[in-house]
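Sequence only, no structure available. Ideas?
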Amino acid sequence: MMDIFQLGIPGPSGHENDTYVAENGIYKVNNLLNNNGSIVSLL
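Reply:
I predicted one. Tokens follow.
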């Protein structure tokens, strides 16, 4: 979990996801707790 800050500077976030801004792009990290921990439910 500590490596997540290597993605970039934390940007706008909400309850469903966090964003990180880097020089080469923007990364979106979804919070699977909203989907009972299931990536299948998210998709």
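The chain has a mean pLDDT of 83.
Hope that gets you unstuck.
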